[in-house]
Design brief:
Chain E has helices at 4-27, 35-53, 55-62, 66-82, 112-138; strands at 96-99, 108-111. With 139 residues, chain E is mostly helical. A two-stranded antiparallel ribbon of chain E has the order 1-2. With 121 residues, chain F is mainly α. Classes of the chains: A mainly alpha (102), B mainly alpha (499), C mainly alpha (756), D mainly alpha (100), E mainly alpha (139), F mainly alpha (121).
Chain lengths: 102, 499, 756, 100, 139, 121
């Protein structure tokens, strides 16, 4: 039973990770891509970790997985926030691709 | 027993730690001097022990070889450690005058002593990866010392020095990895034991050549020496003295160690390459010296040239040639370090190291003239100074081995060495000062003067002693050479009698 | 010699100046006491094991040959020291000068007394160094420095050849002891290495003794003060080469190559030098060239092995030393007193300086070879010797005749012109007779020439016989020295010499002008030296520009190219190719990771955006970390990721102050790509080959079984780090600390900001 | 082949594909923050990868890698983002200085 | 850096990172971790702090000059190695003391090896911070 | 497995060398990072690789259970990574300093330590 739950969680997580990849490639501008990367990506990794926690079932490991998810949730927004600020100050326009400021 | 080996290695690091933590007071520099005195004592005790017992090995952490790290001292290692301690002491005394407070606050003494520790570690270790680590210790502290002061020249020289040395380091590291992949061990004696059992001996030669390139950069041989003349003239004099004396010699030591102990199978191939390298190194180095007109640049190129002599000894691989290589190694460290120390005094009295801008030292600073004369003519190989014996032994080894070309090259390079030493002598000492000043030693603050002159005089004295009474040293070099050519004692001491 | 006579007059340098005089006089006296022993065929040896490991001992031997030289050196030395004390009174660095001169004399004595090749060489080089310092006495002038360097370089070059010759000789003969080598001459002459040894040793001897074509340094070395010239260039240093040839004569002579080399070189030098001697205006230069002539003559005789030739050699050696030292000193007196040495200006000094004039006359007569001077005996023997030559005696006789005649003329110029005749031009200084300390030397030496001319017996007994004996092996070989041997061929030749010489003297001014034109057209060795030096420097500068161009990318390129050629070449030479790699066990995640790494690396290499490069490095770092994860190295993976993060942080900080990549111009060349691919390929080849060998895991197995029971740790990697290989880790943290300190120091030294 | 294994392989493939797509974005750019985002996404994906590796090998040691990465990985993003932001300010300052 | 989100986040994260680094240090002998990893993680906490609040504040929070921490760490590591001399062993021979040994476990281990690892931690921590701080102050 | 990694290492080395040969010393730094990674991987691969079995000893056992990865190269690589980081940090600072005091990142424009003939710097 746990195996199935774990498998589902892992698969979901992986699909999310993949979706994040698709998003980051396909979405038209930085801000949307950012969302795909941070939100979906974090969710994907988090789900995978949850799957791992279920798979192992050992309390110590579960704790570890919870910590991982917690840390991801704590740090990912900060990273996203910083990228957003940078994009803002770079005056990257919404929806319109622009030349590399480099 | 193992503490005889450990103390000379550990002391510089302890000294570095304490000197760094007290760097804002006057205590730091004295800790450095005292630490180096102690190191000399420890090195001497190690030497006595080695003379008494032959090769001694100590298993660090109490783990038997080849599992732990083994420190080994045979004659060559022991003498190198002693020479390192002597040089370190001389330079640390010199630094009392040469290094200003600013550099001390930035950690000069820590950098210097760690450098010495790295050098001592390289000489003492019997483990290949450990050798890499000590090389790195040495390298990184030399980086720091080279650019300490941060002038444009230093930074530019530093870029050259750092880039090229990093390349060699990484080659060395990869080589270690590959050797480990072939033998499964890192202990040099153990590698030496297992290499002949390998099927693919051609591959062993390939790895050997890889090490040759890596160490070749460190030792500054042709055509890998660029970093040396590009950077050695830039740092403080105390620093360039210790660089000139010790750093490249560690590369030479590593070459000697690896190509006698480990890669001693395909000598027809490897040592022929070394012989060519030696000849070209000698010639290009000495011509470079002839082309320059700055004392430090001249001396830098001479380092290259003289490395060639040591490699020549190694390349010939006869007992006498090895005697020559060992003798040259020891002689050259003392003399070259001393010459650069003197250059510092020249700069302080006459105002520059560029020959065109200075002069008149012979007239008004006779003591300095004498002190320069001894190492300079020793370097040029005039008898009965130490350099003569070094060159004599090497040339006779070459002639005995019917290696006419290399013997001729060695002699010719000796002649050109005379040429550039007399160039310095004639320009800096004989020629009147272009601005009409009479440079005098008294111009240096009397409190610092003795700090400059004492180590110079001591090293010059050592040169004279080696020159006039070479027997002890030659006999010692013979024992060292015999040990190098027959590593069975070394291997037995490291791996235990059964191995 | 521009000295101020007013300040230097009547000032000598206290008692210190007398120490060398006393020393050399004492040595001379001691040597005299030994003369009897030597004359009876004995020899004195002293041996001290210097470097027994190399078979080198500090051994000395006093026999006929060395005794003669030793007496000349110490005797003339004493005179010269006494002379210098006055001559150089008040000079700057007088004490240094005397020290060098004394050292030189001792070195010279060591050289001729040495009984070991290496000992001999050591002293040989000591004379080179001390003479360098002596010639460079006038070091304030460019010319003085040039002459000193020239002398050092030429003799130094010869010395190195000599060293090689000695080493070969010693190893061939199995001993460096001269007495043993000399006893085995036949073995040497028949050895296959005889010719190389001979060439090398003669190279040393010829340079030291200024034989053609190495002669040019000697006249320049006259830049030294006159006492130095008198000492170095009459009796001592230049004779070192002669001594060496004489010393090795018993072991090496008797072959064709020996004969022809020495005879031809000697004869040519003699004629060549005496022609040039006539050309000189400076008295000292004239003497220098006559010294060359004498050296040539001595060499010529050493080429033979007849008893006549040897006796002639011995006699001429002594004669020459006596009169040449005397003449040099007299020239010094003239210079000291009149302030010039120009032969064209000087004249009529005889009345003012009668004693000098007398000494000059005596010495010059000896030099010219008039009876009853010793010079006459010498010349008679010379002709006797030359007539005894086995082949082509006529050519050599003519050569000798010519040079002797020229010598006669030069003797006239040096001894007559300054003292007799009229002075035509005002002298720089009003001359007067020099103090007795300066006169003693020339007078005594000149008088000895007369004394021995009239009474040759003591000379014969004490010096000539033993000398010839040490050359030929028997005490009875030497021919008798006598003034009158009846009318014979040598006498006739002597008369011809005198006639020709007188003619040359009378016509010497015209001759000189003509010679000037000839010489100007001939190749000039002295200018050749300048060209050689310029060429050497130019070549050095050229090669250094090529090899050390100061461009970092060249250095890096050469370093990599060397690695490529060396390693790749060895693979080919030693046939260390790997077999075809086996990709069967490869799984797709590994392929994916490899692709990731490769893509990241290639992107880093090709991008021209800094951030893209940085991100690409991040990709590589992550990819490598994934390798570590897949292949079960969690510790390493964590470290890799952390380090990667910090790398990015640091680079991101640093880039804020750094410019964009590729500001103008392409950064890479196609050759770079070739080299890069080559190095990468070689790396792969070697690694593949290494991976084919089976690995020995005994270290790891040991760690696995001892990690917990003995080192109390379950993480084997960490146990290795902190316990099994703690010393590595210690060194590693030292690297980290020092990297931090260095970086900090580097950032702070040029910064205006203070330490926080 | 068990269900768990199949899911695992599939998951692994998906994660790799995700990473690959992020790399593509990294190469394509075009702006600096785009690349930073891609790198950030990769870092986060490695956390998932570690989790999968842990399950694959049954060894929890890989979770430690994930733990560290989850905690520290964003630092690179922060540093790069700050760089992007400051670089703009610097360039503006430089231009202003030039115009003055 | 005037970002409130970053600063607030840092306030929590820095503490967590330091604690976590110590945890990694202590458990390093038995599970992934150890002085290097601990030191690296520990240093990131202050790097983050410096990025968020500036180096001046980070230095103030650290109180000791990072170079001194690094060098002291080197000294501690070395002393841990030399301590073996007191027991007559070779350099870096681990000396173990087990507190409260019981039947099934050897007890709480206190060892020179741990002290050595602490030295490593301090070295890595101090070194990285001294470089990063100095670099930060340059721009 | 190892063979593929060997190829990857080859790519890393090639790109590293290519970067190091550039005139811009910042590229050298990037190359240095790649080269270090290549060397680390070389050591790692030389010790042969094992999938999915970290060298840890489970609680209760005296030695690792089953075949585990070779621990020694891992320790070496860890050491090498940290050393490499130290060197990298210093090199970066040096390049940084070189730019701020010499005003260029192009190595052939740095002519202070080895000035051109004629003294132009």
């Amino acid at each position: 039973m746990t195996d199935i739950i774990a498998s589902v969680l892992i698969l979901m997580g992986s699909i999310m990770t993949f979706a994040a990849g698709v998003g980051i490639l396909r979405l038209p501008d930085l801000f949307t891509r950012m969302h795909a990367a941070t939100k979906v990506g974090t969710l994907g990794s988090g789900l995978t970790m949850a799957g791992a926690a279920v798979y192992f079932g050992d309390p110590g490991i579960v704790l570890r997985c919870i910590l991982i998810i917690g840390f991801l949730l704590l740090t990912a927004p900060i990273g996203a926030h910083m990228i957003g600020r940078a994009a803002l100050s770079l005056k990257i326009p919404v929806w319109k691709p622009k030349d590399d400021p480099e | 027993m193992s503490w005889y080996l450990t103390v000379p290695l550990v002391l510089p690091f302890l000294t570095a730690v304490f000197a760094f933590l007290t760097r804002f007071g006057p205590a730091g520099r004295w800790i450095s001097v005292i630490g180096n005195v102690a190191m000399l004592l420890a090195a001497s005790m190690l030497m006595a022990k080695v003379l008494d017992q032959g090769v001694i090995a100590g298993q660090m952490g109490g783990w038997a070889a080849p599992f732990g790290i083994t420190l080994v001292a045979d004659y060559l290692s022991a003498v190198m450690v002693v020479i390192t301690a002597i040089t370190a002491l001389a330079v640390s005394v010199y630094a009392l005058g040469d290094i200003n407070d600013r550099k001390e606050h930035l950690g000069y003494h820590a950098l210097f002593n760690v450098l010495i520790g790295g050098v001592a570690g390289s000489f003492l270790t019997g483990d290949l990866f450990n050798l890499y680590v000590w090389f790195e210790v040495m390298l990184i502290s030399s980086f720091g010392l080279l650019v300490l002061g941060g002038t444009k020249e230093q930074v530019d020289g530093g870029v050259r020095y750092v880039t090229l040395n990093l390349i060699s380091t990484i080659l060395f590291l990869s080589g270690i990895g590959l050797l480990y992949g072939m033998t499964g061990t890192l202990n040099m004696a153990d590698i030496a034991r297992s290499l002949p059992e390998l099927e693919n001996q051609g591959l062993v030669t390939v790895i050997a050549v890889m090490f040759m390139v890596a160490f070749g950069v460190k030792a500054a041989v042709f055509p890998l020496f660029f970093w040396l003349p590009a950077s050695y003239h830039t740092p403080a004099f105390a620093v360039s003295a210790v660089f000139a004396g010790l750093l490249t010699k560690v590369g030479v030591y590593a070459l000697i160690r690896m190509f006698t102990l480990v890669f001693n199978a395909d000598t027809d191939f490897t040592h022929t390459i070394l012989l060519w390298v030696a000849a070209l190194t000698m010639i290009t180095g000495v011509l470079g010296a002839a082309a320059h007109n700055d004392i430090r640049k001249i001396l830098s190129f001479h380092i290259v040239s003289q490395i060639g002599y040591m490699i020549m000894g190694l390349a010939l691989l006869t007992p006498l040639a090895m005697v020559g290589a060992v003798f040259y190694l020891v002689h050259h460290i003392i003399v070259k370090a001393n010459l650069l120390l003197i250059t510092g005094v020249i700069e302080r009295t006459a105002g520059s190291t560029e020959l065109a801008k200075i002069g008149g030292l012979y007239k008004t600073a006779p003591l300095l003239a004498v002190l320069f004369f001894i190492p300079a003519f020793s370097l040029a190989g005039f008898p009965p100074l130490s350099g003569f014996w070094a060159k004599y032994v090497l040339v006779s080894a070459a002639l005995e081995d019917n290696a006419w070309v290399i013997a001729a090259v060695a002699l010719l390079v000796g002649l050109l060495t005379i040429f550039s030493m007399t160039k310095i002598w004639a320009e800096a000492f004989w020629k009147p000062h272009p601005e009409g000043v009479d440079p005098v030693l008294e111009a240096i603050d009397p409190a610092r003067r003795w700090a400059f002159l004492l180590p110079i005089a001591a090293l010059a004295m050592l040169t004279l002693v080696i020159g006039f009474f070479p027997q002890t040293f030659v006999a010692f070099a013979e024992m060292a050479a015999a040990q190098l050519l027959d590593p069975s004692d070394y291997m037995a001491a490291v791996l235990g009698e059964g191995a | 010699m521009a000295r101020n006579i007013e300040t230097s007059e009547n000032r000598d340098n206290g008692l210190i100046g007398l120490i060398p005089v006393a020393l050399s006089a004492a040595l001379f006296a001691w040597l005299i006491t030994q003369a009897n022993t030597i004359a009876e065929g004995g020899a004195i040896r002293y041996v001290w094991d210097w470097v027994p490991s190399l078979g080198i001992s500090m051994s000395f031997m006093l026999d006929g040959l060395s005794l003669t030289f030793a007496l000349l050196i110490s005797g003339i030395g004493a005179m010269v020291f006494l002379y210098s004390r006055t001559y150089l009174a008040g000079q700057e660095h007088f004490n240094r000068f005397m020290f060098f001169l004394t050292s030189f004399m001792l070195a010279m004595l060591g050289l001729i007394l040495a009984d070991n090749l290496i000992t001999l060489f050591v002293f040989w080089e000591l004379t080179t160094i001390t003479s360098y310092l002596l010639i460079g006495f006038a070091h304030a002038t460019e010319k003085g420095r040039r002459s000193a360097l020239q002398a050092l370089f030429v003799t130094g070059a010869g010395a190195l050849a000599l060293l090689a010759g000695f080493i070969l000789l010693g190893t061939t003969m199995g001993s460096f002891e001269l007495s043993e080598i000399l006893a085995n001459g036949d073995a040497l002459r028949n050895h296959e290495l005889y010719v190389p040894i001979l060439i090398l040793i003669l190279a040393g001897a010829f340079t030291k003794s200024a034989q053609f074509p190495f002669h040019f340094w000697l006249p320049n070395a006259m830049a030294a003060p006159t006492p130095v010239s008198a000492f170095l260039h009459s009796a001592t240093m230049v004779k070192a080469g002669i001594y060496l040839m004489a010393r090795l004569h018993p072991a090496m002579s008797g072959t064709d190559i020996w004969f022809w080399t020495l005879t031809v070189a000697g004869a040519f030098t003699a004629v060549f030098a005496s022609v040039l001697a006539l050309r000189q205006i400076d008295l000292k230069q004239s003497l220098a060239y006559t010294t060359l002539m004498a050296l040539g003559t001595l060499t010529l005789f050493l080429g033979q092995d007849s008893a006549y030739a040897m006796t002639a050699f011995a006699t001429f050696l002594i004669v020459h030393s006596l009169y040449k030292a005397s003449l040099f000193l007299v020239v010094g007196c003239v210079d000291y007193s009149a302030g010039t040495r120009n032969a064209d200006i000087l004249g009529g000094l005889g009345r003012i300086m009668p004693v000098s004039a007398l000494a000059a006359a005596l010495a010059a007569l000896s030099m010219a070879g008039f009876p009853p001077f010793l010079g006459f005996i010498g010349k008679e023997l010379q002709y006797a010797g030359i007539l005894a030559i086995g082949s082509q005696p006529f050519v050599f006789t003519v050569a000798l005749l010519l040079s002797n005649a020229l010598m006669f003329a030069v003797a006239g110029i040096v001894a007559l012109r300054p003292f007799w005749g009229r002075r035509e031009v005002e002298l720089p200084r009003s001359p007067k007779e020099v103090p007795w300390t300066m006169l003693l030397g020339p007078v005594v030496l000149a008088c000895l020439g007369v004394f021995f001319g009239i009474h040759p017996d003591p000379l014969q007994f004490a010096l000539v016989d033993p000398l010839v004996a040490s050359l030929l092996g028997s005490i009875d070989e030497a021919k008798e020295l006598k003034l009158w041997a009846g009318v014979n061929m040598p006498l006739i030749l002597s008369i011809v010499t005198v006639t020709l010489g007188a003619a040359l003297y009378i016509g010497h001014r015209g001759l000189r002008a003509w010679l000037g034109r000839v010489v100007a057209a001939a190749p000039n060795f002295d200018r050749g030296w300048d060209r050689f030096l310029a060429g050497l420097k130019g070549f050095a500068a050229w090669q250094t520009r090529i090899i050390q161009p100061g461009i970092l990318r060249v250095y890096i390129g050469v370093t990599f190219a060397t690695a490529l050629v060396a390693i790749g070449g060895t693979i080919i030479a030693r046939n260390a190719w790997p077999g075809l790699p086996d990709f069967q066990d490869v799984t797709w995640p590994i392929i994916a990771i490899s692709l990731l790494i490769s893509v990241g690396a290639i992107m880093a290499a090709l991008t021209s955006s800094r951030v893209a490069a940085m991100a690409a490095l991040g990709v590589v770092g992550i990819g490598v970390a994934m390798v570590f994860i897949v292949f079960s190295a969690p510790d390493v993976a964590i470290t890799q990721l952390l380090v990667e993060t910090l790398v990015v942080v640091l680079v991101a900080v640093a880039l804020l102050r750094l410019p964009l990549l590729d500001q103008g111009g392409r950064d890479h060349r196609p050759a770079d790509a070739v080299l890069a691919l080559g190095v990468g390929g070689v790396f792969t080849l070697v690694l593949l080959a290494v991976l084919e060998t089976p690995i020995d895991l005994r270290l790891t197995e040991y760690f696995e079984v001892t990690s917990w029971p003995e080192a109390f740790g379950r993480n084997i990697v960490n146990v290795i780090l902190v316990d099994f290989r703690a010393l590595d880790t210690f060194g590693e943290i030292a690297v980290v600390v020092i990297a931090a300190l260095s970086a900090y120091a580097l950032l702070r030294t040029t910064s205006e900001r203070k330490d926080p | 082949m068990s269900l768990a294994l199949i899911t695992l392989i599939m998951s692994l493939a998906l994660v790799f594909l995700g990473v690959g797509l992020a790399v593509l974005r990294l190469i394509l750019g075009p702006t600096m923050p785009d690349r930073v985002v891609a790198l950030d996404k990769m870092t986060v994906s490695i956390v998932a990868f570690c989790g999968l590796a842990a399950i694959w090998s049954g060894d929890v040691a890989f979770l430690d890698v994930a733990l560290v990465l989850a905690l520290v990985g964003f630092l690179a993003t922060v540093a790069l983002a700050r760089f992007a932001e400051r670089a703009v300010i610097r360039r503006q300052q430089a231009e202003e200085a030039k115009n003055d | 850096m005037n970002s409130i989100i970053l600063r607030v986040g840092t306030r929590y994260l820095a503490g967590i990172l330091v604690l976590f680094s110590l945890y990694m240090l202590i458990r390093g002998h038995n599970e992934p971790g150890g002085g290097f990893i601990g030191g690296l993680i520990g240093s990131t906490s202050f790097v983050l702090y410096a990025i968020a609040c500036g180096t001046a504040e980070a230095r103030a929070a650290l109180k000791i000059m990072p170079q001194n921490i690094a060098v002291a760490g080197l000294g501690i590591a070395l002393l841990a190695g030399i301590a073996a001399a007191l027991f007559g062993d070779a350099l870096f021979t681990g000396q173990w003391l087990f507190l409260n040994p019981t039947e099934d476990s050897k007890g709480l281990p206190i060892s020179t090896v741990l002290i050595f690892d602490i030295g490593v931690y301090l070295v890595v921590f101090g070194s990285i911070l001294s470089i990063v701080f100095a670099m930060e102050e340059e721009i | 497995m190892e063979a593929l990694l060997a190829l990857t290492i080859g790519v890393l080395v090639a790109t590293a060398v290519y970067l190091m040969l550039a005139r811009n010393i910042l590229r050298f730094i990037f190359g240095l990072v790649l080269f270090s990674n290549a060397a680390n991987l070389t050591i790692f691969v030389s010790g042969r690789v094992t999938v999915g079995a970290p060298p840890l000893i489970p609680v209760g056992a005296d030695a690792p259970v089953g075949d585990v990865a070779n621990a020694l190269p891992q320790a070496l690589v860890l050491t090498a990574i940290v050393i490499g980081f130290g060197l990298f940090a210093f090199a970066l600072v040096l390049m940084f300093r070189a730019y701020s005091s010499l005003g260029t990142l192009y190595s052939d424009e740095m002519r202070v330590a080895e000035p051109r003939e004629g003294g132009k710097t």
